[in-house]
Amino acid sequence: MRVFDRVLKLLKECDLYRNSNLKLTARMWYNDLPENMRTDSVKAFLREYAAGRLSNAESIRRSKQKIQETMPELRDPHWEGRQVHGKEFSKAIKSNPGYVL
């Protein structure tokens, strides 16, 4: 099942997830885990994350992005190659409207 469909299902099932991205994320991560990994320590970690006591994953990602934007020496060494390839890929898609990913 796609992430979109899983999020929709949780939002329909429980009001709690409508009001907290952290709780929704923690529940998604818990559901992603195999049964044998759903230990008390994992549950404790997810409760801490859901309560906002851990660094937010999206804030970490945005901070990394901003830092690498202003300090290119901290980028992945393959970053430039991906940028060139991405532009070429984008042009190919735009020039061929029937292109299917």
Short recap of the structure:
The protein is mostly helical and 101 residues long. 69% of the residues lie in helices and 0% in strands.
Question: Would you write up a description of this structure?
Answer:
It is a single chain. With 101 residues, this protein is an all-alpha fold. The chain has helices at residues 3-13, 15-19, 21-32, 40-50, 57-70, 79-95. The chain is built from 6 helices and no strands. It has 2 domains: 3-50, no CATH class; 57-95, no CATH class. The mean pLDDT is 88. The longest helix has 17 residues, at 79-95.
Main features:
mainly alpha, 6 helices, 101 residues
Number of domains: 2
Radius of gyration: 19 Å
The helix count comes to 6
* Helix and strand sequence: HHHHHH
Terminal-residue CA separation: 19 Å
Looking at the structure, what is the overall shape? extended
Q: Estimate the mean pLDDT confidence.
A: 88
Helix content: 55-70%
Q: Main beta sheet, described?
A: none
List the helices and strands and how they pair.
Blueprint: H1 3-13, H2 15-19, H3 21-32, H4 40-50, H5 57-70, H6 79-95
Helix pairs in contact: 3-4
